[in-house]
Each structure stands twice: as structure tokens, then as C-alpha cells.
């Protein structure tokens, strides 16, 4: 999700995968694939930069180079999965 600013100053977070059209007239209009339209303060160049940064962070996380502490099992003997059945 990328953070954008509406015309009234409130922040919204949009999924860049749902963006269909970004138009920059004096104001920036974003049309999503679900039919919603948003009017934001950021110019198109800033929005595209945020999309590229967001996609790069996803790629970096999925490459496996980053090891998260919470993903590693600390002790095998303490691992007891709970089965609700």
C-alpha cells in the first residue's frame, strides 16, 4: 500500500495493483479497477516513485535474503501446533 494525501489533507493508503489510470491535470486523479476515483495532492512522478519503492520492498522481502526472527523456530521441543479438530 502506498500513502497518498487527499485534497483536504487526510491520508489514504491505496493498493497500487488496483490503479488503472493516473491523470495529472492541475490536480491528480486516480481511477481504480473497482470504479473508485480519488483526487490527491501528489504529482504523478511522486506516485510512480512510491509505487516503485513499494514493489522493490516486496521483491526484497521475498528474495529470502532477509531472515526475520519471528519466522525462525527458536526451539523445536517447544513447538506444539494446535489442531482444533
From TrEMBL:
InterPro entries: SwrD-like. Keywords: Cell projection, Cilium, Flagellum. It holds the Pfam family FlbD. It comes from the Bacteria. This is Flagellar protein FlbD. It comes from Geotalea daltonii (strain DSM 22248 / JCM 15807 / FRC-32) (Geobacter daltonii).
Amino acid at each position: 500500500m502506498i500513502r497518498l494525501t487527499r485534497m483536504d489533507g487526510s491520508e489514504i493508503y491505496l493498493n497500487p495493483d488496483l490503479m488503472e489510470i493516473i491523470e495529472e491535470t492541475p490536480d491528480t486523479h486516480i481511477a481504480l479497477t473497482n470504479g473508485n476515483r480519488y483526487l490527491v495532492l501528489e504529482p504523478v512522478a511522486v506516485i510512480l516513485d512510491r509505487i516503485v519503492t513499494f514493489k522493490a520492498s516486496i521483491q526484497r522481502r521475498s528474495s529470502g535474503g532477509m531472515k526475520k526472527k519471528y519466522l525462525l523456530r527458536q526451539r523445536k521441543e517447544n513447538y506444539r501446533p494446535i489442531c482444533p479438530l
